[in-house]
Each structure stands twice: as C-alpha cells, then as structure tokens.
Write a structure and sequence with these properties.
By secondary structure, this protein is mostly beta strands. It contains three helices and eleven strands; from the N terminus they run ααββββββαβββββ. It has one domain: Beta Barrel (Lipocalin), CATH 2.40.128.
C-alpha cells in the first residue's frame, strides 16, 4: 500500500469516527449537579468499604478536545453536605479530627495539568485542598461523550474520573489502623455549555 493511500485512509477513518463527530469546539461548562456525582470509599475494620457522597458541589471547566493542555477545572465541595448514610458518623467527620468543617467549610480542586492518553482517556493533575492542606492529586479521566441533550437542546459533555488519596496526607489521622488511610474517589460529571 502506498504512503499516500495509507494516509488518505487514515484521514478518512478519523473524520468518520464517532469521536470526531461527538467532540465540538472548545467551550466552558458548568457542572450539572443533578447529573453529576462524587463518591468515596474507605475501609472499615477490613469488613467493608464505607461509601460516602458529596451532596453539595459546584464548579466549572473549559474543555478543548483538540488541545487538552488548554483545558481548565475548578471545583468546590461543601463539607457540610458530605454524607455517609449515618447521622452520628456524619456529625463526627465534620469535627476537628476529620474535615474540620467550621474552619474549612469547603474542599477544592483546581486542575493544573491536562494530558490526553488516547482519544477516550487522559489525566488531570491538580491541587486538592482538604482541611486547609493542599496536595497534588492526579485523576484518571475517561471521556464519555459530547453532544446535544435531546430534551433541552443544551450542549453537554460528560466524563468519568477516578483517583486514590491518603487522608493522612491532609492531616486526618483519626482511627488509623481501624479505618483505612486510602480513600478511593469515583466521580461522574456532566457539564452544560454556557450559552
């Protein structure tokens, strides 16, 4: 096969791929809290993983499929809205040994470095701040889809992300040895384009 024919076929495959038609021009998006979610999992005595969710969060991101390095991300989570499905435990984790919500009412993540691994995956490295302590954290991100919402015709883009952090890195050392240090994060995001 000639080099010219090979390059022509490759260009045609890219142009016809679903990814090429799904991804639109760069834009700024507001995170849709109704169709997004942040969950975490932490070991409890080796018996199970306690599941927690963030009920209140907001943020914006800029997404540039052609040039991922030009993207941005800024997210805030309200500590008072963190739930583990138990009122007593939820009250405890608001205290000074854990999130210290009185002094630090928000968790924030600001993306600093955006890299594409392939057409459907990449990484976002940024500064995660919990209880006044900031540490670099890398999210493994999967691009799900970009397109028009058929119900309201809004421009939407969706991602899934995972990361693992150590709570002790953020000064939360209560009950180490009984309650896990590693915390797994699972994030689902739909962003609505600004009109």
């Amino acid at each position: 096969m000639s080099k010219l024919l090979r390059n022509t076929l490759l260009a045609a495959m890219i142009a016809c791929s679903p990814l090429a038609t799904e991804r639109a021009a760069a834009g700024t998006f507001d995170i849709d809290p109704v169709h997004s979610g942040i969950a975490f999992f932490i070991d409890h005595l080796g018996f199970s993983q306690v599941i927690g969710i963030a009920k209140e969060f907001s943020g914006t991101f800029a997404f540039d499929a052609a040039q991922p390095a030009n993207s941005s991300l800024d997210v805030a989570v309200k500590v008072a809205g963190i739930s583990t499905n138990n009122n007593q435990r939820d009250s405890d984790i608001q205290g000074a040994d854990w999130f210290n919500a009185t002094e630090f009412p928000q968790i924030t993540f600001v993306g600093r470095e955006f890299k594409a691994v392939d057409a459907k995956s990449g990484t976002i490295t940024g500064d995660l701040t919990i209880a006044g302590v900031s540490k670099p954290v890398t999210l493994d991100v999967t691009f799900n889809k970009e397109g028009q919402n058929p119900w309201d015709k809004s421009h939407v883009v969706g991602f899934s992300a995972r990361a693992t952090i150590k709570r002790s890195d953020f000064g939360m050392k209560a009950s180490l040895g009984m309650i896990g240090d590693e915390v797994s994060l699972l994030i689902q995001v739909e962003g609505r384009g600004r009109s």
